[in-house]
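I'd like us to work through together how a protein chain folds, taking it slowly. We need material for that, and I hope you will provide a protein of your own picking. Go ahead whenever you are ready, and we will take it from there:
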Amino acid sequence: MTRAPSPWWIAGLALIVLAWSFDARLGLVAALWFGATSINVGLAQGGGSLVRWLVPAVFGIAILILWELVVRLFAVSPVILPPPSAIAARIANSLPVLWADFRQTALKGALGGYVLGCGAAVLAAIAVDRSPFLQRGLLPVGNFVAALPIVGIAPIMVMWFGFDWHSKAAVVVVMVFFPVLVNMVAGLKATEPMQRDLMATWSASYWQTLWKLRFPAAMPFLFNGLKIATTLALIGAIVAEFFGSPIVGMGFRINASIGQLQLDMIWAEIAVAAIAGSVFYGLVALIEKRVTFWHPSQRR
């Protein structure tokens, strides 16, 4: 007994035929996309750690191939959208420049501001936890500051701290401080009253209760804020460089390349920033997995 084709295959074949009727190039693009999606759907139904890495890898490679194919088949101007091969060539030919920009923006501005902002947020969360006045006064002000646009904060920080990486780190501190603060304050309140009463029964001091009970319980909340801050840090440092920077940095290079119509260089900087942000996020997630191994979210 033959098996009837699934609605997924019927819809995919109908889309390919429809695209081919308009233009053979569109039909080829639709066929490749449908084929890659079908492979990913089949892989996603499996299990194991290999599938977790294979599915996004296949998806990313399919996007790059389709991007290259669309640009080549439809003769898209490189001024509008360069192909991935041209971006890869630019990266290979500009490694010293890209490394200098990465070091200035990511390692100095973003990472420095991230460490300062997150560390200050943890200390401030402990102070807020001990003071009802700060609970009612600092958190509303924090929500207000967190809503301020970065394009308004960055020029002020450049005027205060100069054109070097210090002003970019200051912008990052402002951006990451309050997300981490809010998550940490919520984490410190995550323990049960019975647990706190048990610590009081054992005559534990505030700091003993904080270190042995409340701080470990707050770790999942803290890492949630830290992971959010990883994306904000790099974005903040790059945008801040648009408003004043030495002749090095990702934001400076993107801004300069716009005037020179060097779209491949802009995409090269975007690719480096995306890879750096993904690696940074992955490192924080890996540390979270080691620190909060006991939490249900880390169990399989």
